[in-house]
Amino acid sequence: MGAMVAANWKMNLPPEGVEAWVGSVVGREESEDVLVVVAPPFPFLTQLAHLGGGAISVAAQNLSEHEAGAYTGEVSAGMLDRAGCSHVIVGHSERRQIYGEGDELVGRKLRAAASAGLVPIFCIGETKELRDGGGTRGLLERQIGTALRVAGTVDGLVVAYEPVWAIGTGDNATPEQVGETHAQIRDLLTPFGLADVILLYGGSVKPDNAAELAAVEGVDGFLVGGASLTSESFKAIWQAMVSSRA
Ligand code: PGA
Predict the structure, then answer these.
(1) Which of 213, 206, 200, 214 is nearest to 235 (CA)?
(2) Where are the alpha helices (DSSP H) in 99-216?
(3) Candidates 65, 87, 92, 182; catalytic one
C-alpha cells in the first residue's frame, strides 16, 4: 500500500519563501514509497507544480462542488486540474467549522473532485466533547457514511483522520488513540469497498512525535499543518515516515 506525507499550509506561506522550501524538499534523496503532497493557497498552485517538477504532488485546500458558473469566489475541480493539482483536501475541519460545510456538501465536493480525476484527501474527525462523551465512532460513521453515499465511487480516495482537538493545539492524539481510531475508520470504510485506502493521521504532527505515530499499525502517512511551514521540520516528518516503512 502507498504512503503519503502532505503539507497543508492553510492561509500561510513558508517564512523561508516558497522557492527555498521547494528547493530544500525536492533536493533530497527521493523515496518513491512515500509521496510528498503540498497544499498551498490557491494563487501558488501553479508555482508549486512548476517548481516541484513532478517530485512533489500539488493539492488544493478546497474546491467548489460545481463545474462552472456564477459562483463568485469559487474554484472548480477542472480548474484545479489545469493549474497542476493532482490532489485536493476535502472536508477539512476548518472548512466544516468556520465555513459551515456539512457532510452532504463534503460528499458533493468528493464527487466533483473524482469526476475531474483529482484524488481527494477526505478529512474526518471528532471534537473534544464528542471524544470525551464517547461519541467518536458515531460521528465518524456519519461523516463517512453520508459523504460517501452522496459521492458514489471515488477512485484513489485518501482519508485523513484529524481529531479537531489535536489540530493546531500542539496536543497530538496518542499512538493508542490513533491506532484504535484508524482501525474503527477502516471498519467503517469496508462496506464501501475502501478498506485499503491510504489513511493519514493529522493533528499536531511534529518532528518529535512523527516516529512514534508513523510506527502505529494502520497509519499510512500524515497531513501536517503548522510543522509543514518550514522545510526542515517537514523533511524530518517525511523522513520518519520513510524510516517506519524501511
Ligand atoms: P496542525 O494542522 O498540524 O497544525 O495541527 C493539521 C491540519 O489541520 O491538517
Answers:
(1) 206
(2) 103-115, 128-132, 136-151, 175-189, 207-214
(3) 92
Tell me the CA–centroid distance for residue 245 and ligand 1, in Å: 23
**Cell (9 digits) for 60:** 488544493
Q: Which of 5, 98, 204 to mutate to test the pocket of ligand 1 (most atoms within 8 A of CB)?
A: 204
Dihedral sign for Cα atoms in the order 12, 167, 157, 138: negative
What is the tens place of the pLDDT at every residue in 13-31? 999 999 999 999 986 665 6
Q: Identify the residues whose C-beta falls under 6 Å from ligand 1.
A: 8, 162, 167-168, 202-205, 223-227
Catalytic residue of the set 94, 126, 162, 182: 162
pLDDT tens column, 87-144: 999 999 999 999 999 999 999 999 999 999 999 999 999 999 999 999 999 999 999 9
Q: For the whole model, what pTM was predicted? A: 0.97
Return the C-alpha cell found at 166: 489535536
